[in-house]
Amino acid sequence: MPKPKVLHIGDPIKYNHDIYTRFASEFDLIRPTTAERERDAFKQALQEHRWGDFDAIFRPFWNTGGEMGRWDEELISLLPSSVKIIASAGAGYDWADVDIFAKYGILYCNGAAASSESVADITLFLILSVFRNLRWSHTAAHSCNPTQFLDAHTTSPLTARNPRTQTLGIIGLGQIGYTIARKVQAAFQMRILYYDIVRKGRELEEAVNATYVGSLEELLGEVDCVVVATPFVGRTLMDREMLGKMKRGSRFVNVARGGLVDEEALVEALEEGRVSAVGMDVHANEPYVHPKLAGNGKVMMLSHNAGGTVDTHVGFERLAMENIEGFLLRGKALTPVNAHLIRGKGSKL
């Protein structure tokens, strides 16, 4: 029997060389040239059937392999019908229309499980930041200005709170959201509410002592801090209307995708006191950040580094290979994103 063919997009692997040796022995690997990665050249190669009928697409590192731009109907429709799975590094999938992949019977697998620990750790830092006014204190200390130092020293505690006394709301209890909840329980013992489009099982909820809330609006009105941990699916989630439903004086943290939040509306919510502090790892127009948010002493910003550790990159690479092995060799992928959409079309998944 011929080996399944895998299209490897992006640069060579960097970490899991033993696993890649096994992977290369199980499949025929096809490597587009650097020039063929560009969108027009990539489309032309698919139209010419240059790589034949391959079975899977493998993207082991999030920094490369995306040169052809967004995977939309235009691009996905050019793939040979033999393609059954794409496994990519990275937790988010805003670069790919997973519903269009499902339309063509292609399973999309991401690497959220590999980044969960790193993202959750940063989320704890941002939660602590917004409750303890750490941006204020940090800026004052770095100013080398004794007046600013004393102001932060004496005044910032007047609005600081211990997280343990507060209620946390998590939007999205997937791999990352669940890990956040687990770490929050271990570190802060906060009361946790969550909202997700699909309610999780009782066993999972009980493991992190999280209570399901049936609507986003209800969640926003009940919690003292909101954490956005849901994937971006092409639309703004926290717009002016939703921000207006938050409890007055509550905190806001975004570790998902910048496009989920209307940043102009977030500025307004801060200025009017609806939101008292913000922690954000992601931004709507990266690498450019909103100047009014950057200049606000109530906002702690990072440079989209929540998942950015060597451990995460090792896991991304490994998981991309293991998803393809699991699906093509054993019939079951490890971290499918759109399997429910394919099942709805009569698939055997």
From TrEMBL:
InterPro entries assigned: D-isomer_2-hydroxyacid_DH, D-isomer_2_OHA_DH_cat_dom, D-isomer_DH_CS, D-isomer_DH_CS1, D-isomer_DH_NAD-bd, NAD(P)-bd_dom_sf
Domain D-isomer specific 2-hydroxyacid dehydrogenase NAD-binding: from-to ranges: 126-306
Classification via PROSITE patterns: D_2_HYDROXYACID_DH_1, D_2_HYDROXYACID_DH_3
GO cellular component: cytosol
Acyltransferase keyword on record: no
Pfam families: 2-Hacid_dh (PF00389), 2-Hacid_dh_C (PF02826)
Region forming the signal peptide: none
UniProtKB keywords: Oxidoreductase
GO molecular-function terms, A-Z: glyoxylate reductase (NADPH) activity; hydroxypyruvate reductase [NAD(P)H] activity; NAD binding
Domain D-isomer specific 2-hydroxyacid dehydrogenase catalytic: 71-338
SUPFAM superfamilies linked: Formate/glycerate dehydrogenase catalytic domain-like, NAD(P)-binding Rossmann-fold domains
Family the entry assigns: Belongs to the D-isomer specific 2-hydroxyacid dehydrogenase family.
Name of protein: D-isomer specific 2-hydroxyacid dehydrogenase NAD-binding domain-containing protein
